[in-house]
TrEMBL record:
Pfam families: TMP-TENI. GO terms for cellular component: cytoplasm. It is an enzyme of class 2 (transferase). It catalyses: 4-methyl-5-(2-phosphooxyethyl)-thiazole + 4-amino-2-methyl-5-(diphosphooxymethyl)pyrimidine + H(+) = thiamine phosphate + diphosphate; 2-(2-carboxy-4-methylthiazol-5-yl)ethyl phosphate + 4-amino-2-methyl-5-(diphosphooxymethyl)pyrimidine + 2 H(+) = thiamine phosphate + CO2 + diphosphate; 2-[(2R,5Z)-2-carboxy-4-methylthiazol-5(2H)-ylidene]ethyl phosphate + 4-amino-2-methyl-5-(diphosphooxymethyl)pyrimidine + 2 H(+) = thiamine phosphate + CO2 + diphosphate. Condenses 4-methyl-5-(beta-hydroxyethyl)thiazole monophosphate (THZ-P) and 2-methyl-4-amino-5-hydroxymethyl pyrimidine pyrophosphate (HMP-PP) to form thiamine monophosphate (TMP). This is Thiamine-phosphate synthase. GO terms for biological process: thiamine biosynthetic process; thiamine diphosphate biosynthetic process. It comes from Marilutibacter alkalisoli. 4-amino-2-methyl-5-(diphosphooxymethyl)pyrimidine binds at residues 40-44, 72, 111, 141.
Length: 211
């Protein structure tokens, strides 16, 4: 099965800025082993050459584990290395151009912040999932716009996976899943955890039915 055909529910881990590529691979390996659904490569401080190198290393790692790799911000890099998808925010270019370059099965994600209207437009342009948030104060992005959980239910009619992001911890994730999130996107709650693998398992538990 190609990575893109797998389930669209669970933990969507996003990499922290990590300049040391060997360390990045080590940290991500542990997280992949714990069972995530998607991985996003996000590095806001690396120069283009390092981002390309890290993206290629992560792609090889993810291919070996059957986990789709989505590249943040840069659909051209994603298309160039044949990654599984790209994630685009409001300043990251054109969803239609990304879809055209990456083909029908690519995972093209759109940041929709607190706007259902933006999500509807993104799906119309070819987005395969929509992301809302920040739902809680984010240690990684303290100035992120905030969103309310009601959006997760109303966006169900768009019939694409709904991703929640922003300050999500194992303690508040179930509330978002109950509100309609298909995936929880997490940076610090996983990568800053004392035990990242245990953190992934704790997020996964939030998707299990309560006894
Ligand atoms: C899954 C997911 N959702 C939202 C974002 C944020 O994208 P953006 O607004 O472009 O901000 P940066 O991540 O580029 O700082 C995301 N990356 N992933
Ligand atoms: C990229 C982004 N967009 C909104 S919040 C956020 C950062 C999420 O990181 P964390 O899980 O550490 O809050
Ligand atoms: Mg962006």
């Amino acid at each position: 099965m190609s990575p893109s055909n797998q389930s669209h529910r669970g933990v969507y881990a996003i990499t922290p800025d990590e300049a040391d590529t060997a360390r990045l691979i080590e940290r991500v390996s542990v997280v992949l082993d714990a069972g995530i659904t998607w991985l996003q490569y996000r590095n806001k401080s690396a120069a283009p050459a390092l981002r390309r190198k890290q993206a290629l290393r992560l792609l090889a790692l993810c291919r070996g584990r059957g986990v789709p790799l989505i590249i943040n911000d840069d659909w051209r890099l994603a298309a160039d290395i044949d990654a599984d998808g790209a994630h685009l925010g409001e300043n990251d270019g054109d969803i239609m151009a990304a879809r055209e370059a990456m083909g029908d099965v690519a995972l093209i994600g759109a940041s929709c912040y607190d706007s259902e209207e933006r999500a509807r437009r993104a799906v119309g342009l070819g987005a395969s999932y929509v992301a809302f948030g920040a739902f809680f104060p984010s240690p990684t992005k303290p100035d992120a716009r905030r969103a309310s959980t009601g959006l997760l239910a109303s966006a169900a009619e768009l019939e694409v996976p709904r991703v929640a992001i922003g300050g999500i911890t194992p303690d508040n994730a179930r509330m978002l899943v109950d509100a309609g999130a298909d995936l929880v996107a997490v940076i610090s709650g996983i990568f800053d955890a004392h035990d990242p693998a245990a953190a992934v398992r704790a997020y996964r538990d939030c998707f299990a039915p309560v006894d």
